[in-house]
Amino acid sequence: MTTRDSDTYYSGNASPSAAKHRIHWFHYASPQTFYPLAGRLIPWFAALAVLLGAAGMYVGFLVAPTDAQQGDAYRIIFLHVPAAWMSMFLYVVMAFWAGVGLVFNTRLSAMLATAIAPTGAMFTFLALWTGSLWGKPTWGTWWVWDARLTSELILLFLYFGFMALQAAIDDPRRADRAGAVLALVGVINVPIIYFSVIWWNTLHQGASISMKSAPTMAMTMLLGMLLMALCFWMYSIATILARVRCILLERERHTDWCMTELRGTP
Amino acid sequence: MIWSGPEEFFAMGGYGLYVWGSVVVVAIALVIEVSLVRQRRRALFVQFSRNGNTHDETQA
Questions:
Q1: What is the residue extent of each domain of chain A?
Q2: Cβ–Cβ under 8 Å, residues B12 and A72
Q3: Is B2 within 8 Å of chain A by CB?
Q4: Distance, CA of B11 to CA of B20 (rounded, Å)
Q5: What residues form DSSP beta bridges with A67?
Q6: Mind listing the pLDDT tens digit for each residue in A44-90?
């Protein structure tokens, strides 16, 4: 009995009318209600990802002009910057849900954090890969051990560490807690990545978009980049929701609702 | 359209290897991730229909 309502405290079967009028913030925190909701949302986010991706690639590769300094090598920006944004953003979201799971002991939050890690790691890898392919023609090297590149590599290792730690612990709830501590400690790396180009001398160029000044790039370049960022965003939501549904079924398969679901078709 | 023909488009001003090397790897990564999640889901249903709810350590 978690209610603090004194009436219900004293009589076991008091009417739930008081509870009815409250807003059920935690309604979708229940795996049983979250699972079908996530299932309904996935096709929409997937469709948005496809549409935004097609529009972004169209603008980036067929409309945006060739860069005066970098030629067409700059077009890697349409994949590199969105991937790098997602790598950092997903880490913060992962650490947030891991932290919520740690503090409130909510199963779904922790499972969400677990579901985010592989997608975050993938975008980190893609940011490094595309960055390397961009660095070779523009800087003359695939890799330098400067602040921006090194801290992004550390981000990849943080994702790997989170996944490896959780995989190494048999009890899922203990794995959640251990992973959460690692994720929260690692958050310190995200501002280091973001501000590294300001704090240290580096080959890497500064932030592509600044809130303080007018865009320095052509509008079509900016549009292509934002469309691709939204595409990766929608893609991440769809994939993470699909993965968290798998994790839910894996962990809660002994419950009636999971068994009913598993008797159906995938 | 900024390109005069497909050759020019694929050449990317001489940076084709770098640009398409980025595009292809991103596409492959997204396809692999989606198929891994689908496979994970399908495996759950197959395992349930075979073994019911018994926890199989070898597949865990």
A1: 75-205+220-266
A2: yes
A3: yes
A4: 9
A5: A71
A6: 999 999 999 999 999 999 999 888 888 899 999 999 999 999 999 99
| Dihedral sign, Cα of residue A165, residue A170, residue A175, residue A176 | positive
Question: Does B50 touch chain A if contact means CB atoms closer than 8 Å?
Answer: no
Confidence of residue A203 (pLDDT cuts 50, 70, 90): confident
- The verdict on B33 touching A (C-beta cutoff 8 Å) is yes
Query: What chain A residue is nearest to B52 in terms of C-alpha separation?
Result: A259
Residue B13 identity (one-letter amino acid): G
Q: Where are the beta strands (DSSP E) in chain A?
A: none
pLDDT number for residue A8: 39
Q: Which residues contact A253 (CB under 8 A, 6 or more apart)?
A: A259, A262, B44, B48, B53
- DSSP of A28-59: GGSHHHHHHHHHHHHHHHHHHHHHHHHHHHHI
- Enumerate the residues of chain A whose CB falls inside 8 A of the CB of residue B13: 66, 71-73
Q: 3-class SS at A71?
A: strand
- The answer to whether residue A24 scores a pLDDT higher than 80 is no
Taking the whole predicted model, whether its pTM rises above 0.90 is answered as: no
Contact predicate A155/A124, CB 8 Å: yes
Q: Which residue of A has its CA nearest to B3?
A: A62
pLDDT at A210 over 80: no
Q: Which chain A residues are closer than 8 Å to B33 by Cβ?
A: 118-119, 122, 239
Question: pLDDT tens, A95-123?
Answer: 999 999 999 998 999 999 999 999 999 99
